[in-house]
Amino acid sequence: MIRGARTRRELFRNCERHQKKERVAGREHRDKESRRECGGLSGCGWDAKAKAAGAQRLPSLVGLVGHDSLPPPPRHSAFPNSVHQTTITSLPPLPLKHAIMSQSHALSDDQVAGELRKMTAFIRQEALEKAREIQLKADEEFAIEKSKLVRQETAAIDTLYEKKFKQAAMSQQITRSTLSNRTRLRVLGGRQELLDELFEKARKKVSTVAADDKKKYQTMLEGLILEGFYFLNEEKVEIRARKKDVDAAKKAIEGAAKEFKKNVGKEVTATVDESEPLPEGSAGGVAIVGGKGKIEINNTFEERLRLLEVDALPAVRETLFGKNVNRRFYD
Q1: Which of 155, 179, 212 is the last residue of a domain?
Q2: How far apart are CA 318 and CA 46, in angstroms?
Q3: What does the pLDDT read at residue 71?
Q4: Residue 220 burial (CB < 10 Å; 0-12/13-18/19+)?
Q5: Residue-wise pLDDT tens digits, 311-320
Q6: For residue 122, what pLDDT is reported?
Q7: Same domain for 131 and 188?
Q8: Which whole number is the average pLDDT over 105-118?
Q9: Are residues 170 and 131 in the same domain?
Q10: Are the beta carbons of 206 and 301 closer than 8 angstroms?
Q11: Cα–Cα separations (whole angstroms), residue 108 to 3, 57, 59, 148, 294
């Protein structure tokens, strides 16, 4: 569309130039013919007649063009005749284009109106083309700016969504981990309660061993005292027991001393310390004292059970609950 408008402008200008050249050529030809008829005199009456005829045609053109669009009149007229001088000085001079047209041939009102309509249509067409260009450019800039804003907002929304998604994923992981830890702690708590109940029952059962089976208790005392002999490896030691277990402790000392001499080849003398016996609430067992009272080995049933809870706890857990699939290393 823009290219077509430019082509029409160029055609219109070319037509104007061609018409202008034809008018100028016709005028020069008529001037030559008139000068030839007048004998080539510069002051002949033809110039006055031509100027007078041009002056008579000026009012019609002035009425079509309008006084406001014409430049101010000159101070002196170019016609020598006083009558025509008065007429011309009262009117402003025409532009160069209209002067050439008036000198070449007179235009009727319809022709002038037609020319004006053509010029008006041409100007309107130019204005419409320019408006279309501006509108197209504005639409293009609007589309570019809109696309830019859409991309920016889309990127901002994507960033915000990604941030919220990460926060939601992290919150979900924290919640899952919290629930898992709570469940694990609940399971561990239940297992520990079961172990505590089991060891409590063991304590109650151990406290009845001495009263239920005297022969078995005698054998157990002998083994506990022999273990103390091996650990201290001294000639003289003291044995502490409950008051009701003094006789059983003396018999156990005799058997343990014979076994120690047989295995080690060394005599050992052990006496029961009746001045500091074990508490009557004790489940049983003995305490072996050596090193002139500085070393004491606690071989009571309560202490042995406590050591069992610590040392044998993994084996007890594996027996009760099975192997831990998450455990990789074993002592």
Answers
A1: 212
A2: 142
A3: 45
A4: buried
A5: 888 888 888 8
A6: 93
A7: yes
A8: 84
A9: yes
A10: yes
A11: 34, 10, 12, 59, 149
User: Could you tell me the CA-to-CA distances from 5 to 132, 154, 259 in Å, in that order?
Assistant: 12, 41, 131
Are 162 and 240 within one domain? no
SS3 content of the chain, % helix, strand, coil (to 5): 70, 5, 20
**Alpha-carbon distance values, 132 to 118, 136, 204, 257, 289 (Å):** 21, 6, 105, 124, 116
Last residue of a domain, one of 212, 234, 254: 212
> What's the pLDDT band for 47 if we cut at 50, 70, 90?
very low
Per the domain annotation, does 49 fall within a domain?
no
The total of other beta-carbon atoms located within 10 Å of residue 19's CB is 13
247 within domain boundaries: yes
Joined tokens for residue 154 = 């889309």
227-240 confidence digits (pLDDT tens): 988 888 888 889 98
Residue numbers of the domain that contains 192: 115-212
- CATH for 307: 3.30.2320.30
The model's pLDDT over 144-157, given as tens digits with 9 standing for 90+, comes to: 999 999 999 999 99
Which residue would you say has higher pLDDT here, 92 or 20? 20
- Compute the average pLDDT of residues 54-67: 42
Specify the number of domains making up the chain: 2
Radius of gyration of the chain (CA): 67
| Contact between 105 and 27 (Cβ < 8 Å) | no
**How far is residue 290's CA from residue 283's CA, in Å, rounded to a whole number?**
23
Euclidean distance between CA atoms 59 and 78, whole angstroms = 17
- What is the secondary structure of 212-248 as a DSSP string? H-HHHHHHHHHHHHHHHHHHH--SEEEEE--GGGHHH
